[in-house]
């Protein structure tokens, strides 16, 4: 079960899909994979659900296909036999949960109250669906609900959009976010799978929320770095701030007191979800500098340098400050 949840966390988004035709399942899964999201929750809202899951499991064994809107043990049985690797339900139905556990298949029941979360804990579950997320109060409600239950991860679904998904994904208690924004029913019905691939890619980058953090410049000595910082701060009306072996010019530039990664310096790219962004670069074939993994005083990873130079600069990913 842990391996499935690790993959769900890595991808960060679970496209929630309703299929009227099982024949659309494989083209849809290929489109989502092309867009960087090889995962989907196929809802049991139509008769095509089990056949769609079966087709994806057979044709694309590396695709993480699950079943959603599972309301009965019979539906859970059909989904698992078809090849579903996880099961999601809108509420916590003991019969569904017990059946999935008997088959050793991860199940994420919908929970909206402490009582329901404690029922999930009774079954030894480590992840639940927070549904309907926005209607229940969104992130403030999720934070309040999660606070007493430190071992539980949440999958907020319902009202999650491209505009707010990065805020959800940045929360350390969120396993992934769920939604139909990556694969709208109307595009599936029209067979516009190239557009779905584009939407999946857009959703992935909306989750990462990449932005320029700062540019680092390698200097030859602490004196050169400090003199340069004072000059630039005067020119641009910024304040100096001492870093670890560097001097910052506001939040724009970092002057290194000696050569660090990169021939000329480095470019810091901020992201809402650092660990998932690292997994993304690993999937692309990049590696990270072991000595370039930088941790904060709280012990949490705050930055990670990618191996290699990019036009003479190193690239590093940096965690954006948590939203309050």
Describe the structure.
Helix 2 packs across helix 10 and helix 4 packs parallel to helix 5. The protein contains 12 helices and 16 strands. The strands form 3 sheets. It has an 8-stranded mixed β-sheet, with helices on one face. It has a 4-stranded parallel β-sheet with strand order 3-2-1-8. Strand 4, helix 5 and strand 5 form a beta-alpha-beta unit. With 324 residues, it is of the alpha/beta class. The chain has helices spanning 2-11, 25-34, 49-59, 73-82, 94-102, 114-122, 138-146, 165-170, 185-189, 193-208, 222-236, 274-283, and strands at residues 13-17, 39-43, 64-68, 87-89, 107-111, 127-130, 153-156, 177-179, 211-218, 240-242, 246-249, 253-256, 265-271, 288-295, 301-310, 313-319. It folds into 2 domains: 2-207, TIM Barrel; 211-319, 2,3-Dihydroxybiphenyl 1,2-Dioxygenase, domain 1 (Roll), CATH 3.10.180.
Which secondary structure elements does this structure contain, and how are they paired or packed?
Layout: H1 2-11, E1 13-17, H2 25-34, E2 39-43, H3 49-59, E3 64-68, H4 73-82, E4 87-89, H5 94-102, E5 107-111, H6 114-122, E6 127-130, H7 138-146, E7 153-156, H8 165-170, E8 177-179, H9 185-189, H10 193-208, E9 211-218, H11 222-236, E10 240-242, E11 246-249, E12 253-256, E13 265-271, H12 274-283, E14 288-295, E15 301-310, E16 313-319
Parallel strand pairs: 1-2, 1-8, 2-3, 4-5, 5-6, 6-7, 9-12, 13-16
Antiparallel strand pairs: 9-13, 10-11, 11-12, 14-15, 15-16
Helix pairs in contact: 2-10, 3-4, 4-5
């Amino acid at each position: 079960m842990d391996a499935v949840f690790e993959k769900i966390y890595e991808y960060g988004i679970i496209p929630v899909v309703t299929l009227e035709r099982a024949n659309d399942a494989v083209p849809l899964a290929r489109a989502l994979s092309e867009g960087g999201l090889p995962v989907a929750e196929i809802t049991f809202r139509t008769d095509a659900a089990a056949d769609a899951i079966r087709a994806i499991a057979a044709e694309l064994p590396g695709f993480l296909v699950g079943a959603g809107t599972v309301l009965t043990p019979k539906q859970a049985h059909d989904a698992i036999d078809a090849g579903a690797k996880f099961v999601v339900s809108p509420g916590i139905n003991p019969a569904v949960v017990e059946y999935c556990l008997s088959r050793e298949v991860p199940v994420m029941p919908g929970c909206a109250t402490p009582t329901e979360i404690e029922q999930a804990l009774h079954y030894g579950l480590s992840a639940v669906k927070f549904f309907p997320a926005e209607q229940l109060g969104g992130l403030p409600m999720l934070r309040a609900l999660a606070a007493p239950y430190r071992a539980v991860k949440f999958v907020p679904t319902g009202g999650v959009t491209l505009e707010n998904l990065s805020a959800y994904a940045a929360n350390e208690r969120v396993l992934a976010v769920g939604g139909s924004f990556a694969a709208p029913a109307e595009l599936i019905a029209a067979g516009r799978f190239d557009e779905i691939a584009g939407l999946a890619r857009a959703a992935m980058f909306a989750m990462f929320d990449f932005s320029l953090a700062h540019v680092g410049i390698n200097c030859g000595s602490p004196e050169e770095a400090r003199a340069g910082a004072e000059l630039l701060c005067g020119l641009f009306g910024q304040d100096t701030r001492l870093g670890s072996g560097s001097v910052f010019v506001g939040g724009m530039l970092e002057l290194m007191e000696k050569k660090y990664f990169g021939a000329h310096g480095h470019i810091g790219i901020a992201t809402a979800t650092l660990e998932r962004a690292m997994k993304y670069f690993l999937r692309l074939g990049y590696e990270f500098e072991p000595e370039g993994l930088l941790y904060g005083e709280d012990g949490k990873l705050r930055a990670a340098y990618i191996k290699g130079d990019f036009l003479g600069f190193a690239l590093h990913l940096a965690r954006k400050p948590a939203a309050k």
